[in-house]
Design goal:
Among the domains are: about 140 residues, Rossmann fold; about 150 residues, Rossmann fold, CATH 3.40.50. The chain is built from 14 helices and 13 strands. The strands form two sheets. A seven-stranded mixed beta sheet has the order 10-9-8-7-11-12-13. The chain is globular, with a radius of gyration of 21 Å. The protein binds nicotinamide-adenine-dinucleotide. The site of nicotinamide-adenine-dinucleotide has 24 residues, from helix 7 and strand 8. Nicotinamide-adenine-dinucleotide binds next to helix 7 and strand 8.
Length: about 425
């Protein structure tokens, strides 16, 4: 029997692209952008929808839908992850692609913004089904990706192995090995030292700079984390080693709370076996909503977008929010948190360590010249530090919060490029 899972192709009530557009519009208004530039940057350059049919291990045939969106390739090749999720949608990809444009511009990287997704549920799929689907997806988007066009990377439920499969399928298509087509690859095939924990490392650097800026020592501070995957677990380890107290963590299956602090190295061993934090050490269990309301100093949303919204923002007690996830806070929630004087390190700054080290991986692949881990970390630190203080300066200059400041900085940089290229001949 032919089974097509396109019942899952739906837009959620929460529309991430509307959120992304509202953030962009606020900055565009502050900068008084010319209408032709404003419109050009409001919409993605390209949106591709593809369908992949594969034979499952049980012999049944399944068709999956995927997307690749390029928001802007003006300042360099598109850059952005590929997400596997049953809830993926075109609107989500459009938002994530736009956020990538602004993130790369905040860091002043010579890259644009893109994002991809496949609607599927990896925990229900075997390794060989995931490999088939990934290679079919690569084949479906092969004309629009490439080292000088658009360079994918891992995101939710994709990892270094997924990138290796993409690299293989793309290399076969063009007829030679091309590692620079994706970042976040295994070291054996051109990956960079330091890439796997880079997003958490970038968050850590931005928290260290925030600590200096606010004169707020991080030692002993209580931390809550939503999402314990690549991003959530890497920042947890760094803050634990620094001397913070990680008191609550949730993931998609459940959550744990211990007011005296969770032992992160032991938790990591447990998660390797169980794939979830749920049930660790018989700690008190906790939901996402409960985590948002606990008495903590620093909140780290590291799961998916839209989790902090108008109905729960007023209950948040944290003094600092550092956004590991892309778009975890809606614009309404952002205003509520601003009124409560929560210091927000916005996603397009806070989680930019990942794309920064991805940029360094791409540079290394293109040159076939590889850096030691210390060099990668050092460069990442310098770039994150520069971006942090650039945003603080704009925030002081425009008397606005860190999110608006990051958008003003990013939109100004990209708009300047559009202006230099001129009105005629593109789009
Ligand atoms: P991941 O798949 O490794 O981990 C995601 C985590 O979030 C898992 O622990 C999962 O259980 C949890 N989660 C998912 N839905 C949840 C829900 N409804 N409630 C609670 N927990 C939930 O993904 P990741 O790579 O860590 O990415 C997490 C976020 O960080 C995403 O928004 C992604 O776009 C963003 N991000 C990732 C990178 C990167 O380098 N991987 C870079 C920048 C931003």
């Amino acid at each position: 029997m032919v089974k097509i899972n396109n019942s899952k192709i739906r837009e959620k009530k929460y529309d991430p692209f509307i959120e992304a557009t509202l953030q962009y519009e606020r900055a565009a208004k502050t900068l008084d952008l010319e209408p032709w530039i404003y419109n050009r940057l409001k919409f993605p350059e390209k949106e591709l929808t593809v369908h992949m049919t594969i034979t499952l291990d049980n012999g049944e045939v399944e068709t999956y839908t995927g997307y690749r969106v390029q928001h802007s390739t003006l300042r360099g090749p598109g850059k952005g992850g590929i997400r596997y999720s049953p809830d993926a949608s075109l609107s989500e990809c459009k938002a994530l692609a736009a956020w990538m444009t602004w993130k790369c511009a905040v860091l002043d990287l010579p890259l644009g913004g893109a994002k991809g997704a496949v609607i599927c549920n990896p925990p229900d799929m075997s390794e060989s089904e995931l490999e088939k689907l990934t290679k079919e997806y690569t084949y479906a988007i092969k004309e629009i990706i490439g080292p000088q066009k658009d360079i994918p990377a891992p995101d939710v439920w994709t990892n270094a192995q997924t990138m290796a499969w993409i690299c293989d399928a793309y290399s076969r298509y063009i007829g030679h090995f091309e590692p620079a087509v994706v970042t976040g690859k295994p070291l054996e095939i051109g990956g960079s030292q330091g890439r796997s924990g880079a997003t958490g490392l970038g968050m850590y650097y931005s928290l260290l700079e925030t600590s200096k800026h606010l004169e707020y020592p991080l030692e002993g501070k209580r931390v809550g984390i939503i999402g314990y995957g690549n991003v959530g677990s890497s920042i947890a380890r760094l803050l634990y080693d620094y001397g913070c107290k990680i008191i609550a963590i949730t993931d998609i299956y459940g959550g744990i709370f211990n007011k005296n602090g969770i032992k992160i190295p032991e938790l990591d061993n447990y998660v390797v076996k169980t794939k979830s934090v749920k049930g660790f050490n018989k700690y008190h269990s906790i939901t996402n909503e409960e985590l948002l309301e606990i008495n903590c100093d620093i909140l780290l949303p590291c799961a998916i977008e839209g989790m902090i919204h108008s109905k729960n923002a007023s209950k948040i007690k944290a003094k600092i929010i550092c956004e590991g996830a892309n778009g975890p806070t809606t614009t309404e929630a952002d205003e509520i948190l601003g009124d409560k004087h929560v210091f927000m390190i916005p996603d397009i700054l806070a989680n930019a360590g990942g794309v920064t080290v991805s940029y360094l991986e791409w540079v290394q692949d293109v040159q076939r010249l590889f850096y030691a881990e210390d060099e990668v970390k050092n460069r990442c630190w310098q770039m994150m530090q520069r971006a942090f203080w650039d945003v603080v300066r704009i925030s002081d200059q425009y008397k606005t919060n860190m999110r608006n400041a990051a958008y003003i900085l990013a939109v100004k940089r990209v708009a300047n490029s559009v202006r230099m290229f001129g009105k005629i001949g593109r789009n």
